Amino acid sequence: MAQDERGEDPGRGRVEMIPAKRRALILERLKRDGAAAIQELAEVVGASASTIRRDLEHLVKQGALERTHGGALLQRTDHATFEPEIAIAAQFARAEKEAIGAAVAAELQSGQSVIFDASTTVLAVAREVAARRLALTAVTNSLAIAQVLADVPEVHLVVPGGTVRRGSLTLVGRPGEDFLGTIHADVALLGTHAITGTTLTETSLEVAAMKRAMITAARRVLVLADSSKFSSPSFCTICDASEVSEIVTDDGIDPANLTALRALNLVVRVVPVGGSRPERARA
Length: 283
Description:
By secondary structure, this protein is of the alpha/beta class. The chain folds into two domains: about 10-75, Winged helix-like DNA-binding domain superfamily/Winged helix DNA-binding domain (Arc Repressor Mutant, subunit A), CATH 1.10.10.10; about 85-280, Rossmann fold, CATH 3.40.50. About 35% of the residues lie in helices and about 25% in strands. It has helices at about 20-35, 40-45, 50-60, 85-90, 95-105, 120-130, 145-150, 175-180, 205-215, 255-260, and strands at about 10, 15, 35, 65-70, 70-75, 115, 135-140, 155-160, 165, 170, 185-190, 195, 200, 220-225, 235-240, 245-250, 265-270, 280. The strands form five sheets. An eight-stranded mixed β-sheet has the order 8-7-6-11-14-16-17-18, with helices on both faces. Strands 3-5-4 form a three-stranded antiparallel β-sheet. A three-stranded antiparallel β-sheet has the order 12-13-15. Helix 6 (about 120-130) links the parallel strand 6 and strand 7 (about 135-140). The longest helix has 15 residues, at about 20-35. The chain is globular.
């Protein structure tokens, strides 16, 4: 039976899956296999072929993939400024982000001052902080993270201000960037759009500038990057991995990438997306 755009079966009134989750699953499958047929994607996602076709057309308009006869494939040429819409990004590699978020939050201590970057993986840390009701001084340029932490009485929340970046909940520019130059936080938690070799990159100059200011403003810097982030570079450089304290990723990381980082004496924490203790290795 046909489903509407929300994945709802009109005949039964049953909601299957939100569009953002379906589209994240489609991108995850294409990232793994490179290409897939519509029927294959329908079976993976649990939706009708007509729903998958609509999802593919949506992702084509975003520039995320190309249509083929009977299916789709990832863009043959990476677009350095491409980023998925916020709802899809929140669903992409969700289990990996939640595992990383829980592992990092478990090491934060009451009384610390922590900078929370605007990233979906750092948002997972913020949710764990809220659940644990940690008493922190939290500085964030993310309106989504601010909303989560604002409900925690134990958290002293600082939102330094700026301009809301179009299509996101991220504050960039002044006065927030200037404010970061005046503080000395214990920890900064950063996301990144891509890690290529030892270079951390972003899709936007203004976002990269905020991240560099956060690195300067903290004594210890953790980069939270699920294994899908080890890819070709995005538009602009944030910094070299040697400028951060630690990279936290999941156990889906390509062994070749891990070996390359280890050769440069960097600290990498590998978090299992299953439950056993994380591996911390001086990479």
